[in-house]
Structure formats: C-alpha cells, structure tokens
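Now for a concrete sample entry.
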Amino acid sequence: MKAFVNGSVWLGGPAGSRAGAVAIAGERIVAVGSTRDVLDVAGTGVEIIDLQHRFMSPGFQDAHVHPVYGGLQGLQCDLSGSDSAAQALQAVAAYADSHPDVPFIQGGGWLYPWFEGGNPSASALDEVTRDRPAYLVVADGHSGWANSAALKLADVTSSTPDPSDGRIERNPDGTPQGTLHEGAMNLIERIVPPPSPAEAAAALLDAQRTLFEAGVTSWQDAWVTREIHELYRSLAQSGELKASVRGALRWDRDRGIDQLDDLIGMSGEGYGRYDPRTVKLMLDGVCENFTAALLDPYIDESSRPTDNSGLDFIDPGELRHIVTAIDAAGLQCHFHALGDRAVRNALDAIEAARRANGPNDLRPHLAHVQVVDPVDVSRFRALGATANVQPLWACPEPALIELTLPFLQERQRTHHYPFAALARQAPIAMGSDWPVSSPKVMAQIAVATTRAVSEDTIGDAFIGDQRLDHETAMNAFTSGSAYVNHLDHETGVIAPGFRADLVVLDEDPFELAWTGHVAVDMTVVGGEIVHQLDVAAD
C-alpha cells in the first residue's frame, strides 16, 4: 500500500473539492481525505510519499492523439524543433549526413507559415537531400513535402491529375511543385517504406514515455490502422502497454460500407487496457490548405468569395448511412470535423443514427471543431455528442493569423474555436493531436484559459470571451476525456474504488494565470509510478 500525504489533492469532477492525502492498494484508490485520516486507514507497513504540499490531480487523458506517429517522428527526421524554413532545411541536411545508409528519408514536423503560401518546394529539399528520395509530412498531417527524387519514384508528373480528395501544388508549367495536400499525399505515401514491426514498437513505447512525462495516463488513438491495432494488441499482451488506450479504427474513405464487417471484427480483439471499439471518420481537411469544409466559400486576398468551400471526404448522404450502421453495430464514432460544414454533417449523421437506432450510450465525439455555426452549438447536448477540442490552436499564432483568418468570411472568423459556448451546451473533452502540437497538458490548459500565445501576451487574447475557466479545462482533460474514452466508471476522478491513475504537479494550476511552465513531477498508472522527477519518499 502507498499513501500520498501532505498534498493539495484536487478530486476532479463537477464538485472540484480538495483533500490532503490519498491511499492506494494495488491498482485502486482505497482512501481519500486528510493526511491523518488516510494514515489511520492505511495502518502500518504503508509506503509514505510526502507530496510536500504539491498539487495532485486525476491522471490526464488525451482524447485525440497519434502516439505511433509521434514516436516515429522522433526516430526519423524530426523538424518539430525548427522555427523556420532555413532551420528545417538545416535539420534535413544534418539528418541526411548522419544517416547515409537510410535509402528513403522520412519524417515531419514542418509548419505552413515557414514557406510562401504554406507550400515548401521540391527544389529546396533537393539541395539538402541530393538524389535520395525524401518525404516530410507537415505537423498537422494534412500535407506532404516531397523532393524531386520521391516525385520521380512515385511517377508524379505534370500529367498526374489531382485526386478528388486532394491537390498537387504545381509550378507555372504544371509540373509538381513539391507539396501535396490531403488525398494527393497518397501518391507518395504508397511508395514510402513502412516502419518495421520493431521500429513501430519502439516508436509506441517511446511515445508512451513522452505521454507519461506529460501526466497522460490514458488516451484515444485517433488513427488506428490494422498494423497499429496489431501493435497495441502485442504490447498489451506483453504488459509493455501500461496506459489505457481506446483505439479509433480508421474508416477508409476509398472503401464502401462493406469494410464495417472488418472493423467490427477488429473491435472485438481488444486485450487488457486496449479497447478498439471506436471508428474514426475523416470528414474534411484543414483551413491552412483550404480543404476544411465550410458553409461559406473561402475568400481570396482581395476578400472576394472564391469557388472553393473545402472538401467533403465522405458524401454527406453516404455519411448518414455509414454512421447509422456504425451506431447500430455498437461502436463509437470519432469524427475529424474542422469546418462548420463538416461539423454540421457530423451532427446530421448522428441525428440520423438516433432516429434509426434510438438513444444509446456510445458517446460520439467531434474533434477539432475549429469553426462551428451557432445554430449547431446547442445540437451537441441534444444529440449526446461531445466536443473534443485541441486548445493549443486557439490563440493568435502564425498559422491562424496569416494562413487562416484572412481567407475566411467574417461569420467564420467570429465563430472560431467556440470553447466556452460549447462547454455551456455540451460535454467537452480535450486532446493534443500530438505530434501536430505539443502533448504537454499544462501548456494546452494555459492556452485554453487565456487564448494567448504566451504568458507575456495574455492581454492579446484571441476571441477572449471563449476562454475557459481552470476547472472546466482541467475537467476536460480528466473526467471529460474519461467519459469519451468510456473510462469514467473507474478513472477521471480521485475516489475510493477508482483506479490509481494520478499526476503530481509542482504548482497548483488553479492559482496561476499561465500554467504553461507547470512541471509534472510524478505520474502514477494503476498504482505504479511510471514517471518521477523530484519526489521525496519516506
């Protein structure tokens, strides 16, 4: 038995009350209360961990994350530490020089604002990769950067048509420029060597360590292919997967409804703490490359409406049929819905499923919800849908200010990341979308509660009336995400009988205007300390 004493223990949930100590036995919490009361319950022979007045919370849960890809990026050519095109190219050159035996350079983490129009060129990449093929994915995963060798190997030429769900950026003469958006990425990715099983396992275990360091004890993997599904099963069976993981099985938009039988089969193959009973449906793209599905068309640099209002990756009529079938099969739907038309299409599909199948407790959720028409905000609660928000994006950073807002009509600029409006109407969960952005929960809560880029710019909030209070933000990353992950019966709050998934912070976030610098001192998963910085034990 362990007793965590002399702390400020936030119990989570709607009450948000505090205690001073927690006792655990095995995987479960057995007592919560004052230090004296908990020690009385624990009795003799207990391991005492002095929190030294630090803050303890239920373990954080990430409701939308891509751990395998985050881990792989760290093992490949990782551009996430760069700040500009020049730095990114230096990083590629350094990787190429230090990995001369890698036949195909892979990686990612670049950002749209580093390049003119958000589109890096093959010629720039050619200078640092020479004749080796190279392919690097943007941080948000919706565009790829290929060099000339990769384009040639994939036979992408001036005569290659744009796919219906993507776009090839082109030079004035029609030749591929080097950037491929959305479905066009498949033209290159089909010839990119996949990671070996050993590389994928190393990536996922490295990602698990990274998430533990951020205080994340459970997550929903938002893009589970057959290969990733088998990887989770293998690590769950070996005991190396310690976190609880809800797997969102990828819906292939190029296949029909027949694939549902395959997904139903996979959904029954969970093991231990891996539960794959969710289906992920990509409905649209992103605003930065003009593929997010909007009710009103994008505007050009002269503020004139264009003929482009984004892409529907799944026909709305077909989507209603698909979601009704998934719902009838007893599986949760996890939507990528970024633009206001995609959000409406998702809600319409959930409504169709409700009419056909009746109410249930499957808990569909919409991730990203960057632009939401006010008419649709109240529909979340009525339909039993959760808003799954990614808070790090809701601030005046370059991708928003330079590549998004100038190309949206006024109504869509105003109804941007409406966190507070959604939280008043519906359950709210939070996820990082790592490696798209940082997995650090306290950095995300800092932006959710300030709508600012940094501590020094809190006065420059982006649509400040959509800020969340600290309790709402903390609950979104604990009980809110536990609800989405169907783990709320045993995680998300600190209470006797619940699993001992806990996090210890070096400061109390409720007392801070900016939480981005708060450190995670300890993470506990099922009673096991899986991450520890500086905790004194007596």
Notes: The domain at 197-484 is CATH 3.20.20.140 (TIM Barrel). The radius of gyration is 23 Å. DSSP finds 18 helices and 24 strands in the chain. The chain has three domains: 2-59+498-532, 69-189, 197-484.
